[in-house]
């Protein structure tokens, strides 16, 4: 453990023009000490927009400068407890004061906590730092639950213990099965303590023994012993990695480097985040002792899972209306925002259901099954699965308590969402019943579309109706009956109402008061997405960039190698915006910033900024084309939007959206215009280059087809250019002259897929950018080597190494000769021609003589290397 740490108190310039001077000072301080470093004080800046309320939003470039400074210094905010904001001037409240530390300090004090202490005579809150969380000694070790360790399966002794224990107990009953499981668990725990308890201590002893043998006289017996000890040490290292990997719960890292340090840090982070030290009871009083916390937890869950047992009359009033399947409709908040004229006003009510799954009454669910006509035996099977529920609780790893539930649906059960939808269908039936009586009227955005009164997705509920007191009283009655019959609880404090722009005066406040909810200008989010988007969508998507930044800025990510960064980037970072991309077109400038953030994360392994040896566009190429297979966000956005357009276009109503390359497949040709519709097999336009010479402008393709359902070759040759005529005659006509259908031209089966749309968009981009294609290097990724070795080979093949030639090309002043042999230093020289590189290969098991060839390019040489390895 280090004997000292570096502590700096920092005050950021209040003058925005001079704030960069403070950031540069921090960068200088970060290079001046190798000790664990913590920096605290008033930075006069925020890291995210939600760290501030009141006044105008903080300019994004100021936040970015602060983030870049912390990244360059290797610092990260260690979090806080208490009030959200640390400064107030009666106009705005930001969180300006914070404590930041580097990795060494965070590892030295993993339980450190920061509390915001309100001050009566100052406009700033004080920062109280507790190094072990509570300024007390660490809590005593508790009895941990039994967990099957992944490392056990690699030991034959594990299978032998299970088989011997299982065969030694002869009891076919259910109680006998429990006895077998209990005895096997005890034997495995005893074997684990004897074999795996002190893996790190065993590794240290083996390492010391190997060093001792190497320092002594080298004999055949000592060589054999060293080799044997190395094999044992290798097995222990693998076991240690598996132990920490299982505890890290980093599910995205399915395959990567051997990185015990990363898994250790991730496991510690997971354990500390799950630790409960204090809890508030129902009266708002903090409870900190173990027994008190357990009592609060048991009381809370008993109040949730204890049934209220609705009466038959309550359930009949809810189920009295006819039930129909749910329908998904389009978003209606734009209508409310822009409706400024007319006598009829409308409201949108977002209903918040508190602990929706946990409060469903089983008797109500069974009644719903009966009303929907399900088979009695099927219903009894479902109800037996639902009602056989019991709970125990884990407090900081220790199990306690037992609770048998009287209601609720289990979270995570694949059946639960469907059961909840059946219960919600009863609510929809009540609203439809009032619609038929014209007490509630939904919104119709135009005369030709049906009215929409409600949108439901699981427990996210939106209700649309006229802005009248009668409608509000009816809604209140429906919600009250639904609560009494189903057991669900409507949280009116979190429910909000939006009124259309033509509802003025005190009426909005009166309508909201009838239901007991608040009025707001717009719903923040529905299904995780913004409900209203204006011309500038940039502000809507800033939260996505913040999420990506938080991911790349966590400590454990900086413990990964570049190969680990590549896995994290593909499996986590690039999936964050996918859901939003399927609904909104992202601004190009925002996508460029997001890709820049991802590129910096890939190249900057650690907190130091490094040279980007290849552009992001190059990295996004397919691996067969020399890239790393990352996704281009713009093309991915277009492909996901095209999926929605394809769904609309394939509906029976025949709505067609010409996005990307929707193309008609010709049947009888009666519905397809010669000019205007995409029907010719020509990428990009799918239309004739020249108009027909004599045919009318509204002519259909059917006029080019004979009575025998064949192309009229003479007419086509006479009306179109030779290029267009050849393309038309190549189109196969559908058998029997059936209905024209839309097909996806880029797949042989004519079916659309997001992957196909993404490939098509990328091909169009490559053609437009006129970039040169690189030779395939897929042999690198087929080799059975560690990911970091394959990535290094890619660096070599792509000429992405910091050789003298590449450094000088990027403006770094230095001699152009190799520091060993003084020849021009490029990749092929470093690997094959340099005397040091030749010595490295000569010491390896590679067939160096066959590899010492006269290959000119790095890719040819690597192709030969991996060919030799494969053979």
Automatic annotation (TrEMBL):
Domain of life of the native organism: Eukaryota
Pfam family, one: RVT_1
Coiled coil region boundaries: none
InterPro entries the UniProt entry points to: DNA/RNA_pol_sf, Endo/exonu/phosph_ase_sf, RT_dom, RVT-Znf
Residue ranges constituting the Reverse transcriptase domain according to the UniProt record: 269-519
PANTHER family noted in UniProt: REVERSE TRANSCRIPTASE DOMAIN-CONTAINING PROTEIN (PTHR33116:SF86), REVERSE TRANSCRIPTASE ZINC-BINDING DOMAIN-CONTAINING PROTEIN-RELATED-RELATED (PTHR33116)
Record's protein name: Mitochondrial protein
Organism of derivation: Sesamum radiatum
